[in-house]
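Do me a favour: review this protein, sequence plus structure tokens, and tell me how the chain folds. Record follows.
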Amino acid sequence: MFSELKKLFKHSGIYALGAIAQAGLSFLLVPFYTRFLSQADYGRLEILQTFLKILLFLIPLGLPSAILKCYHRDAKSRDERKVLTSTAFFFVLFSGILQTLILLFFLHPLSQFLLKTDLNLLLFLTIATALFAASLELFLAFLRAEERSRFYTLIFLLRFILTLGITIYLVVILQWGIAGALIGNMFSQILTLLFFLPYLKNYVRIKISWTALGRLLSFGIAILPASIAMWVMDLSDRYFLNHFSNLAEVGIYSLGYRVGFILEFCLVIPFQLAWPSFSFRIAKQQNHRQIYARVLTYFFLAGILISLFLSLFAPEIVRILAPSDYAAASSIVPFVSLAYVFYGLHFVLAPGIHLSGKTKYYPLIIIFPAVLNIFLNYYLIPFYGMYGAAIATLISFTFLLFLAYFVSNHFYPVRYEWRRLAKICILGFGILALFFFLPIDSILAKIGLLILFFLALYGIRFWEKEEKKMIKKILRRKVYKFFDY
């Protein structure tokens, strides 16, 4: 079991470099945004970025995800795989150009709806960026399908450096405001695409297979409602906040959300990138259900630990990222980070739905929590503002996790390690309760709480003998390396 888990952690770790670079980009740019843009302009930028994300679902119509499923299952040879990727490339190119032209035709009403004012240039830049970013995401899906995690991370790092450099120059030096941020993002996508062009011949030739396109679209369009529903749960709260409150509160909330979202980049996204291929590959092994259960336990432990860290140190992180008028952002971090722990856990349960052939239920698992999220935002935000939005996010993702568990385990039962999961839950919430109910402001005291969490894992006999041996082996190796230096 440990050898298989080691492979999963290896690919997750490499993918994590790219994901952390993306998160690092977000956080390295935040201090510039919060100091060189007003709170209202920062709120506008966040709304435009949420619109960009939904375009990244609509333009490729789910084909990046479909590639991952069809690349090995339906294409038996290298030539067939090249036809598959060529078909996906030309379709996304056509779909992107067509949707871009349609959106440009409705530019004025869209600007009024999203921003309550005529900022057509900003919206145009967002739409243009989506076209280039969607093409790049498809290329990245090709790399994931081949498990070329190092090259995948290289592309991420290149885009990170380009976006950071161009955006800082335009926003800080030239002081182009929101337009500078959007142009920086657009040009980084274009330049990264140009870097990838020499490798395009490995994946694309002038050939389209209508049969392959049918397979890709049958899967891609099927997951599209779920993708849009996920966008609703992730990002629709900004629109409700803008409608019921103001852009300044959108800016404060967005900063707090971004801090909580660190967990998504550090844990959920790397895992999500590595898990599908891994989970399907080991499905033929006799002990695969036991491995699934163990992965859930480890993921929950890692998620609670990161959530605790972010919750404890949120005030310090916010002070580094923004001026004092953003201080309230730290109070929503515990809700958001815990919500993304639950969101990540639902991915661990996903193989049960796919292996049982019950994928038709997956869109419903996402759509019902999304509908709940809309209602909660509508009723909570007018009374509680950004705190209502944070609570709505946590409740919606909790509901998502419960639905995913009940559907997956009904059709594909797995005996999860409930006793160990309960220990993590009680211990994690206990530490968090100490932080909230006791006046703990010292950084040393917060570090002490994290150490207490680790020590308590031994105290409550969480680790099994096999795991203790593995931990001792790793620690011994690290200590020897340290003293060798």
About this structure: The two ends are 33 Å apart (CA to CA). The chain has two domains: 1-15+245-485, 37-223. The chain has a mean pLDDT of 85.
